[in-house]
Amino acid sequence: MSNNYSDLKSLVEYKEGNLVIKDKNILRKSMDSLIYSAVFESEDDKRTNLFLFIKELAKECGAIPSSIQGLYEQMGKHYPGFTVPAINIRGLTYDVAKAIFRKAIEMNVGALIFEIARSEIGYTKQRPLEYSTVIAAAAVAEGFEQPIFIQGDHFQLVRKHYLKEPDGEFNYVKNLISEAIEAEFYNIDIDASTVVDLSKDSIKEQQRPNFENTATLAEYIRKIQPTGIEISIGGEIGEIGSKNSTPEEAKAFLDGFNETFKGSKGLSKLSIQTGTSHGGVCLPDGTLADVKIDFEALRIISDLVRNQYGLSGCVQHGASTLPEDAFDMFPKTGTSEVHLATGFQNIIYDSIHLPEEFRWQVYSFIKEEYANERKENQSDEQFIYSIRKKGFGPLKKKWWDLPDSIKNPIMKELEAKFALLFEKLNVINTKDIVKQTVKPVLVKKTFDANKLGL
Q1: Beta strands 12-15 and 18-21: pairing type?
Q2: Which CATH number characterizes residue 217's domain?
Q3: What are phi and psi of 157, to 5 degrees?
Q4: What is the distance, to the nearest Å, from the Cα of residue 411 to the centroid of all Cα atoms in its chain?
Q5: 321 in Cβ contact with 344 (< 8 Å)
Q6: Alpha-carbon distance 152 to 271, whole Å?
C-alpha cells in the first residue's frame, strides 16, 4: 500500500461521508499492507486519519467496537459457566490478533476481550487509537464479523505519583480514559487499589481512597461515554499488601462505592488478589516459580458480588503463566474474567522459530537501554525475563518486518495456546450468548478523506 494512499479508491467509494466497500474479499487481502502503512506512517495527521478510516471499514465489515456490559449483567443474574479471557498483546499485535480471531472463528467464540494496560501503552508504544485499530484490522483480515471488545486494563493511579501530587495523577488517568473512549475502548478497568491506606483501623476506611477515586472516575466515564453505550467498568481491591483479598474487603469497597457513586450504573466486575503476580515469579535459573492460587477466594467472593451486588463476578489478574491444569478452575469457581499477557509474550520470545540472532539483538538492546532498572542480586536470566516486555515497543518495526517464514510458525504455537485456553475457560460456542446480550452501537468517527486521496 503506497504512502499517498491513492490506491484506496480501488477498495472503497466515499460519497457524502459514507464508505462503500467495493469487494470485501479484496479488502481483507489488502488489510496486511494497509495497517502496516498506517502504523508506520511518519506524519501524525495522516496516521490518525488512516487509523480512523480503517476503523470505519471494520465497522462496515461487522467488527464493531462494543461494551460487554450486557453480557456481564446477564452473568450477574445467572452465571453461564464460562470465564471471559482478556488478552493483552504487547508485540506483533496484528499477527497475534489475527491468530486469536482465527481460533475464535473456528471455535465459535464470542466472549473475548482484547486489552492493554496503562503501563503497556507506554512501553509497547501503542496508544489507544493504534491498538484498537490494529485489533479491528485483524478482525477484518480474518472475517470476524462480531462485536469486538477492547478494554483499558489497569487504568491505575500510580501510588508514588498520587502521594506526591494527587490531583496531577488523578487528572492523568482522567485524560487517559478520555483518550481510550475516543479510541472506542468501551470497557475500562479502574485500578485505585494502589492507594488503599492500610494505616487506618477499619477495612472500610482502608478502602476509602480506593472506592472514592473509583466512584469519581466511574462518574466521569458515564459522563463522556457515547450515547447509547453503557461502558463496562471494573473496580479492584487487593493491590496493596501481600495477603489475598477477603469478602470483608469486597463488601467494604462495594458498599463504599455504592454510597459514593452518583450515576445510573456502577461496576460490572471486581478484580481481587488471590496469590498471583503479573508475569509470574522468575527464579535465578530463569524458570518460573510454582504459584498457589486461592480458588476458594475466587469462588466465595464471586458468589458474594454476584448475589449481593449484581456484578458478573470476580476478575483474576496475572494468570497466563499458571499451569495449564489450573485454567478449568476459573469457570468452576464462577470467575467472570481472567487477564492473560506474559504467557503469550513468553511463547514468542522462547519459540524455536525465533532466530537466535534476532532474539539476542533484542536482549542486547534492552540490557543496555534499561540497565538502570536491574535490581540488586538479579541473575541475568531474571533481569532479561523481567524486562523483555520492553523489547517490543522501541523495536516495533523490526518485529513487524520479520518474514512470514518466522512469524507464521510462532503464530501456530500461539494458536494452540489460545485453543487450549478457550476450551479450559469454556468460551467455545459463546457467539450466540454474546449476540443475545450485546447490541452493538455504531459510533461514527470522521476522518479527512482528502488526506487519504478519497
Answers
A1: antiparallel
A2: 3.20.20.70
A3: -80, 115
A4: 19
A5: no
A6: 14
Residue range(s) defining the domain that contains residue 28:
6-61
Q: Are 57 and 64 in contact (CB under 8 A)?
A: no
Given the C-alpha cell 508514588, which residue does it identify? 160
Quickly list DSSP for 253-290.
HHHHHHHH--SS---SEEEE-SS--TT--B-TTSPBPP
CB 20 within 8 Å of CB 13 = yes
Same domain, 282 and 216: yes
All 3 cell numbers of residue 170? 488523578
User: Taking Cα atoms as reference points, which of 402, 340, 388 lies closest to residue 95?
Assistant: 402
Cα distance between the two ends of the chain: 14
The greatest distance separating any two alpha carbons of the chain, rounded to the nearest whole angstrom, comes to 67
For residue 39, which amino acid is it?
Answer: V
Q: Is the pTM of this model over 0.70?
A: yes
- The DSSP element (H or E) to which 91 belongs, if any, is none
Q: Please check whether residue 331 lies inside any domain of the structure.
A: yes
Does 361 reside within a domain?
no
Helix (H) or strand (E) holding 416: helix 404-424
Residue 174: all three cell numbers together: 482522567
pLDDT in tens, 436-450: 999 999 999 999 988
- Whether 274 is in a domain gets the answer yes
- Check: CB of residue 319 under 8 Å from CB of residue 340: yes
What gap in Å lies between CA 384 and CA 367, rounded to an integer?
Answer: 7
Q: Which of 15-19, 140-144, 284-288 has the highest mean pLDDT?
A: 140-144
| Residue of 336, 439, 309, 436 lying closest to 79 (CA atoms) | 336
Nine-digit cell at 372? Answer: 538502570
d(CA 50, CA 45) in angstroms, rounded, equals 9
pLDDT digits (tens, 9 = 90+) for 328-355: 999 999 999 999 999 999 999 999 999 9
C-alpha–C-alpha distance, residues 348 and 352, integer Å: 9
